[in-house]
Amino acid sequence: HMMRFQLFLSLWSVTSSWCIKKICKVAKTKSKKTLATPGVKNIVLVDGVRTPFLQSGTIYANLMPHDLARAALQGLLNRTGLPKDAVDYIVYGTVIQEVKTSNVAREAALGAGFSDKTPAHTVTMACISSNQAMTTAVGLIAAGQCDAVIAGGVEFMSDVPIRHSRKMRKTMLSLNKAKTLGARLSLLGSIRLAHLAPELPAVAEFSTAETMGHSADRLAAAFGVSRLEQDEFALRSHMLAKKAQDSGLLSDVISFKVPGKDIVSKDNGIRPSTMEQMAKLKPAFIKPHGTVTAANSSFLTDGASAVLIMSEEKALAMGYKPKAYLRDFVYVSQDPKDQLLLGPTYATPKVLEKSGLTLNDIDVFEFHEAFAGQIMANLKAMESDWFAQTYMGRKTKVGAPPMEKFNSWGGSLSLGHPFAATGCRLVTTVAHRLQKEGGQYGLVAACAAGGQGHAMVIEAYPQ
C-alpha cells in the first residue's frame, strides 16, 4: 500500500507540474492584462470611416471641405445605424481653414442632417488635429458630459485660401470705411502694381520660416538616413497599401458620389513604382544634394474621416459591439527647428510608461508617414541610447518597432495625408488590424508642425 501511495504521489507531482507549465504557457501567449482601471469609465471606438483619400486637384477639386466632412459623417451614420439624436457632441479637426466655414464641424453636421441642437466645434493641431478631436471626445465622455461623441478630421488641399498682400488688404478695408467719393478715389489711386502680388500659403513653420520638407531633409541627414533607405521605405508603403486595397482590408473607406462625377470608392494615390524610377527624381527641397523627393514624401491630399466614440456602457446598451478601447494617450512638444518631426520618438516611451506596457507588448504599430526620411530618422532615434540620454533625459532607448508589425497596410506616403483626417485613419486601422491579426494592443504615433507629437494606446475589444 505504501509503495502504491508513493507512486501515486510521484505521478501526481509530475502531472501537476506539467499542467501548471502548460497553463502558464497558454496564459502567457493567449492573454495579457487589460488596461481597464477600477472606477474609470471604459471608452470605446465603435466604428470609423473615411472618404477615399484623393490626390488634390483630382475628383474632389470643385467641392468644399464641409462637403467631404459631411460625406464622412453620413457614411458613419450609414455604417453604424446610429440615430442622429443619440449623438451628444461633434468635434472635427482641420488645418487649412476655409473662411466661409470657419467652424467646419458645425457646417458639416448641419449638412449631414444632425439636429441644430447638437453642439459642434473645430480644433486644429496641424497633422494631429483629428487626434486632438478624438482625445477631446474622450475627455468629454470621461468627464461625464457626454455618452456619444463623433470625432473626425477634414482637409481640402485642392482649394486653399490665397490672400491679397497686407498693403492691399489694408487699402480694401479702408475703402470699405471711406464715406466720400474723394476719399475712395484717393485710396484707389494709392494702389500700386506690387500691392496685387498674392500671399501664397506654404507648409512652413511660422517660428523658423522653414518648409517642412526642408526640415525633413535636414533630419534625415542628421540621422544618416540615405536616399536609398528612404526610397525603399516609400516603395514598401505603396506595395503594402496596394496589397491591402486589393485584399479589401481598407474597409474604413466608404463610397462617395461626387456631384457631377462618378462614385469614388478607392484611394487614388497608391502607386507602386520601382527603385529605378524613384532614383530618377530630383531632390524636392535641398538642391542638388538633398534626399527628400516627391516619391518619398506624402502628397497633397483631399479627404475626411469620422469615428464614433462612446462610453462602453452606452455602446452596449444601444446594442453595439465596439471595435476597441481607447486607452492612455500623451501629447509632446519639442524644438520646432531641429526636432520638428521627432514626435513619435518622444511620445512612444511616455505613453508606454503611462500604460505600464513595454514595446514588446504592442502587437500593432501605426505611425504617421509624413516623409520616409522622417520615419527612418524616428526609428533610428528610438534605437539610440545616446539620443535617449542626451536629448530625452532617459537612461536607455525605447527601441524601434519591429517592421513586421509596422504600418503593414500602407501609410500616409501611399494612402495619402489629408492633414487633419489622418489621425482617425490611424486609430481605425489599428482597431481593424487588431481584429484581423488577433493582437491585443496597438500604438498610434504621429508628428506635427510646431514640433509637436501624439501617441495613444488602443486595446482590442474582446471578440
Automatic annotation (TrEMBL):
This is Trifunctional enzyme subunit beta, mitochondrial. It comes from Sinocyclocheilus anshuiensis. Belongs to the thiolase-like superfamily. Thiolase family. PANTHER family: ACETYL-COA C-ACYLTRANSFERASE, TRIFUNCTIONAL ENZYME SUBUNIT BETA, MITOCHONDRIAL. Its EC number is 2.3.1.155, 2.3.1.16. GO terms for molecular function: acetyl-CoA C-acyltransferase activity; acetyl-CoA C-myristoyltransferase activity. It catalyses: tetradecanoyl-CoA + acetyl-CoA = 3-oxohexadecanoyl-CoA + CoA; an acyl-CoA + acetyl-CoA = a 3-oxoacyl-CoA + CoA; dodecanoyl-CoA + acetyl-CoA = 3-oxotetradecanoyl-CoA + CoA; hexanoyl-CoA + acetyl-CoA = 3-oxooctanoyl-CoA + CoA. Keywords: Acetylation, Acyltransferase, Endoplasmic reticulum, Fatty acid metabolism, Lipid metabolism, Membrane, Mitochondrion, Mitochondrion inner membrane, Mitochondrion outer membrane, Signal, Transferase, Transit peptide.
